């Protein structure tokens, strides 16, 4: 299991494929912050939002400012 803080700055969107289940709690947002999945569904996130990403999901994170979150996930054996 791993946990920590995640911060994303404006710029290129981050495309991330989850090979484990993970939960994020959005702590801070400056500007606009969106996530979208591989189906194209896109949602705006705000402080206090709790997100769950299931194993096998590909998520795109993008922001016009920054986003800051706490995450916890159960990673496969042998990965950090």
Q: Rg to the nearest angstrom?
A: 12 Å
Element string (H = helix, E = strand): EEEEEEEE
What oligomerization state is this entry in?
Answer: single chain
Number of helices: 0
Give the C-level CATH assignment: Mainly Beta
So, CATH architecture?
Sandwich
* Sheet/helix structural class: mainly beta
Spatial sequence of strands, sheet with the most strands: 1-8-3-6
Largest sheet: 4 strands, antiparallel
- Quantity of strands, as a count: 8
Span from first to last CA? Answer: 9 Å
CATH topology, by name, is Jelly Rolls
How would you describe this structure to a colleague?
This protein is an all-beta fold and 80 residues long. 0% of the residues lie in helices and 61% in strands. It has one domain: Jelly Rolls (Sandwich). It is built from no helices and 8 strands. The strands form 2 sheets. A 4-stranded antiparallel β-sheet has the order 1-8-3-6, with no helix packed on it. A 4-stranded antiparallel β-sheet has the order 2-7-4-5, with no helix packed on it. A hairpin with a 4-residue loop joins strand 4 and strand 5. It starts with a strand and ends in a 6-residue tail after the last strand.
How do the strands and helices of this protein lay out in sequence?
Layout: E1 2-9, E2 14-17, E3 21-30, E4 33-37, E5 42-44, E6 50-53, E7 58-63, E8 66-74
Keywords, separated by commas or semicolons:
single chain; mainly beta; Jelly Rolls
């Amino acid at each position: 299991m791993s946990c920590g803080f995640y911060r994303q700055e404006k710029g290129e969107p981050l495309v991330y494929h989850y090979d484990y289940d993970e939960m994020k709690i959005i702590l801070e947002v400056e500007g606009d912050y969106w996530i979208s999945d591989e189906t194209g569904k896109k949602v705006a996130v705000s402080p206090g939002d709790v997100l769950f990403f299931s194993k096998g999901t590909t998520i795109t994170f993008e922001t016009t400012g920054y986003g800051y979150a706490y995450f916890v996930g159960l990673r496969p054996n042998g990965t950090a």
